# Entry
Amino acid sequence: MLRYQAYRDLLEKINRGVNINLWGRTGIGKTYLIKQALLKDTSCKSLYLALDYPFNVDSLFSAIAMGFGLYAGAEWQQIVERLQLGENKLLVLDNFDRLHCTTNDLSADLSRLQMLAILDTLSLLTVSCQPLRYFHFQSFTDCFQELEMNESNSHIF
# Structure
């Protein structure tokens, strides 16, 4: 669990619509933090998606549409347009590292996800074991602030 000040800063950024890449070693409590605290404390309408196998970006956009009450059969461009409307929203993509393993065209998939990251009304929280810069797609990475969850800013149970 993040220490109080780090958690408060994260929550404030999420509520303001800032995109965050929360990363750190496996087992440090990133998913626990999100499920047990962040999703309950945020003032945004929230959707948590764990990127478990099998998945692809098309099915991910369908899940996003259904999770935010949009037409599930809509094209991804329409989904992005609809997400621009209304109040702030939080989309959590847990196990984001797995995108490497499931995509046939990483740059095309990251370009589509970047459309979500540049929305003013959507805060995208990616959760991974490594920072986004390892994806080697700089324009996508530039849309995010990094927060490493480690022993210096966390309570380890």
About this structure: DSSP finds seven helices and five strands in the chain. The two ends are 8 Å apart (CA to CA). The longest strand covers residues 122-128. The helical segments are 4-16, 30-41, 57-67, 76-83, 99-102, 106-117, 138-141.
